[in-house]
Design brief:
The chain is α/β, with parallel strands linked by helices. Helices cover 54% and strands 13% of the residues. Helix 3 crosses helix 5 and helix 4 packs across helix 5.
């Protein structure tokens, strides 16, 4: 009961505290781990003479659950209202029925205790493997197109941040032999993360770019800008990519459960570099 109260208080603090951060949820993990350990120790208190039966049921449970998972992934990729979808749906329900019948036969043939312990152990192994996969995705170790994690690293929401900084530094190095020499003008973008990324440069933020001025490097939104295109060369990059959780339907959640793919809303920016800063400016006849 004390661990449950601890977990509830930690969750409420992480949700309603004005200065909350994702890392505050770590205080909730401690009582959850303790509760899970107590329950697993109680549920897996096996006797020596029943270990073979329990391990056999656990292995069978893991195999059937793995087949169910692979069939579920195939069902997500199958065309709607097709013969393949119908077949995989029946296989999915049939696999669950086979698992239920197998556990019941073990309970009748050997003992209810062995069947229960084996089913719990197999389910714990399967969910543990899924948790490891989710942890790899949250850490950015698994690269899937249009993947979104509920608790992910910064690289998942700012996918091209390294390219933005690398482009600006490279242009500065080409033009003045110093990666931090060229000033950067940010026009029409209110992003503290972008300003922090370019903190080693002299950054100027303006709502709109002056038509008379010609700063060496300009960063704007992804819209077409004919005035800049006449004197600059531009490169479009994805600055921020946010998952549309509020527009996710019931069917979309099944797709996210399998491949962690969900509707994304990319925010694109364009890095404009003045023509005379490029190495080929003199050879191309440009000023």
């Amino acid at each position: 009961m004390r661990l449950s109260v601890w977990a509830l208080v930690a969750l409420l603090v992480a949700l309603f505290y004005p200065a909350h951060q994702v890392s505050d949820l770590a205080w909730m993990l401690i009582p959850l781990w303790a509760l899970a350990s107590l329950e697993l120790a109680r549920a897996l208190n096996m006797h020596t003479e029943e270990r073979l039966e329990v391990l056999g049921v656990a292995a069978l449970t893991v195999i059937i659950l793995a087949f169910i998972w692979l069939n579920f992934l195939g069902l997500l990729q199958s065309p709607a209202a097709s013969e393949q979808t119908t077949l995989r749906t029946w296989l999915l329900f049939g696999s669950f029925f086979l698992l239920f019948i197998s556990v019941m036969l073990v309970a009748v043939g050997w003992s209810l205790r062995s069947a229960r312990f084996g089913a719990v152990l197999g389910l714990a192994i399967a969910l543990g493997l899924y948790t490891i996969g989710a942890m790899a995705g949250a850490a950015g170790l698994r690269t899937i197109p249009n993947a979104a994690e509920m608790w992910g690293a910064g690289s998942s929401t700012l996918p091209d941040a390294d390219l933005v900084l690398g482009t600006v530094d490279q242009i500065s190095d080409w033009s003045k032999d110093n990666t931090d020499s060229q000033p950067v003008t940010i026009a029409g973008i209110d992003s503290p993360a972008l300003r922090w990324l370019l903190r080693d440069h002299s950054v100027t933020v303006t709502p709109a770019l002056d038509a008379v001025s010609a700063p060496p490097i300009v960063i704007t939104t992804g819209q077409n800008n004919l005035a800049l295109a006449a004197r600059y060369r531009g490169q479009e990059l994805v600055w921020r990519q946010d998952a549309q959780w509020n527009q996710t339907g019931f069917a979309d959640w099944f797709g996210w459960l399998g491949f962690h793919q969900i509707l994304q809303n990319p925010q694109k920016i364009v890095i404009w570099v003045r023509d005379d800063l490029f190495l080929d400016a003199s050879s191309s006849g440009k000023p």
